[in-house]
Amino acid sequence: MTQTPEARPRAGRLPRTARRAQLLDVALDVFVEQGYHSASMDEIAERAGVSKPVLYQHFPGKLDLYTALVSTAVDTVIEGVRESLASTHDNRERVQASMQLWYDSVADREKAFRLVFESDLTSDPEVRELVDRVTSESAAAIAEVIVEDTGLSRGAAELLAAGLVGMGHVGARAWLSGASGLSRDDAVTLASTLAWRGIGGFPKPTTQGDE
Questions:
Q1: From 14, 33, 130, 190, which residue has the greatest number of CB atoms within 10 Å?
Q2: Cβ-count burial of 174 within 10 angstroms (0-12 exposed, 13-18 middle, 19+ buried)?
Q3: Side-chain-side CA neighbours of residue 174 (13 Å)
Q4: DSSP 124
Q5: What CA–CA distance (Å, rounded) separates 48 from 27?
Q6: Domains and CATH numbers, the chain
Q7: Closest CA to 49 of 11, 105, 94, 90
Q8: What is the rounded average pLDDT for all residues in the chain?
Q9: Pick from 107, 108, 106, 120: which is nearest to 33 by CA?
Q10: Distance CA 23, CA 199 (A)
Q11: What is the pLDDT of residues 161-172, one digit of tens each?
């Protein structure tokens, strides 16, 4: 007699916010493993131990679920940049803290980070806009500090800030591959030194009263 496989136990009742968080956590694994196009709502519901109607109560469609994940990851990184800049008034330490943020994001939140920077759905305008926010809003926050410290124009400051953001997340992703053999701390120190030697070359203009 052939035995049918046991059905996966359904998850018990959870408060709505807890269920939403659980579904997001499961969906993150599926999207990172398979990409947006190959991932299915059926599998996400199965892994979460809920019925598809329950999943659709929280997220009307796969794109809604995906953009919720990307949006959360984007907000986390941007807020981290702002906190790094606010953590000290010493600009060299700000550079160090910002670089630390990018490397920590890669190492500690690798899945969410990959969803932002390695998305296979950037052709969708909503997703593209979310992904672009990481660079634009992080650079805007850094540019404020550069303008204040150097007296450069806003346009020049934004260009420098975008370069620092790119140095942070691109370098962090390269480090994650393990090819360099560097520890996270050593990689952060190396990147911070390079960034500071560049941005530190734009000192704040002195006024007559400073001379």
A1: 130
A2: middle
A3: 10
A4: S
A5: 8
A6: 14-60 (1.10.10.60), 73-202 (1.10.357.10)
A7: 11
A8: 87
A9: 120
A10: 42
A11: 999 999 999 999
